[in-house]
Amino acid sequence: MRNFLSKKARNITPYVAGEQPRGRDIIKLNTNESPYPPSPRVYDAIKSELGSELRKYPDPCGGEFRMQAAEYVGLKEENIFCGNGSDEVLGFAFQAFFDEDRRIKVPDISYSFYPVWSQLFDIQTEIMPVNENFEIDVEDYYNSQGGVVIANPNAPTGIALKIEKIEKVVKNNLNCVVIIDEAYVEFGGDSAVPLVRMYDNLLVIRTLSKSQSLAGIRAGFAVGHPKLIDGLFRIKDSFNSYPVNSLTSAAAAAALKDKEYYNGVSKKVIETREWTAMELEKLGYEVLPSKTNFIFAKPKVKNAKEVFDALKENDIIVRWFDKDRIRDYLRITIGTDDDMKTLVECLTEINDSK
Ligand SMILES: *Cc1c(COP(=O)(O)O)cnc(C)c1O
Prior knowledge:
Layout: H1 7-11, E1 27-28, H2 40-50, H3 64-73, E2 80-83, H4 86-97, E3 104-107, H5 113-120, E4 125-128, E5 147-151, H6 163-171, E6 178-181, E7 202-207, E8 220-224, H7 226-236, H8 246-257, H9 259-282, E9 286-287, E10 294-298, H10 304-313, E11 316-317, E12 330-333, H11 337-352
Parallel strand pairs: 1-11, 3-4, 3-5, 5-6, 6-7
Antiparallel strand pairs: 2-8, 7-8, 9-10, 10-12
The structure holds pyridoxal-5'-phosphate.
């Protein structure tokens, strides 16, 4: 059979997302979704948006979503770029700020989409190993040729860097763009957003998928100096002028307005996380310190793949990465208290089984 694929399509190794099984009674702890519903105001906002004119294109800049995102982070609309999930915003950022002939630095253990974009856009990438405690040593990122991408808190480790450390990375890379991906920052991390006023080379990326319980709506945004935001617009307007649909814009704006509701949700997730970490430690697991809505843990009695398979048989899905350095670990999303009790019971049985 003839192969019609371009060289690019043939050679790329695509990102593999966690599975999304439908219609079964499973406990799904594999893609860091929220176990709690979005604010009721989100549904109201979508309903009223349905009454508007869907025959028209949406605002090309994100409309109400952009306004509320600016308000949410305490900056101006000129500091905000909205997209169809933060994955898209990150993809635009790679194209807007990185070049083929200037190497960027990313950690070896981090969001595995970064190297995929590097490959897709032909950006040379220097992979910096995290240390033996899975921490990012910030000095490794100083004076990058082409740019830096760091998730803070990091995934899948859950470990967070203090803002002073992030500032050092930004300060020591004034000639290129430093992207800080804050997908999980609302679960106890320090945000770099206050640094945006001081550094024009810092771009902070946020998503509503995790802490706003809106993975299905696809909403993410970037925060940065207006010059960087203009760069993102140049790429957007060369690819898809309307990445944020009007229902998403209404939903995202409503969610960002309801801080009180989401503070409660995040607080609850953090409490459940701390309980789960303690229980796993009692079962002999080594648990990395998490500031996210998941924990990264190494089983002792059985190996990680065995535990992963045994959990699956019991309709509990977690994430296991068949990748150097982290093959012995499981990434477990924080669910409801009931989910986590069932998980701990199941892990106890797995420990005790022959
Ligand atoms: C989940 C996640 C994203 C993607 O979020 P979307 O907004 O749903 O595209 C980006 N970065 C990291 C580190 C994530 O874990």
